[in-house]
Amino acid sequence: MIPAEILEQTSRQIRQFAPEWRDDMPMTIHEHALDRGGVPRYSGEFIGWLTRNEGGRSAYPDQSDARFRITKAMRTLRKVAPREHETLWRIFSGETVEQVCLWLNERAIRHGHPERYSTKDTVVIIVSGVDKLAYWSGSE
Question: If 101 and its partner were Cys, which of 14, 61, 95, 122 is the partner (CB 3.0–4.6 Å)?
Answer without folding.
Answer: 122
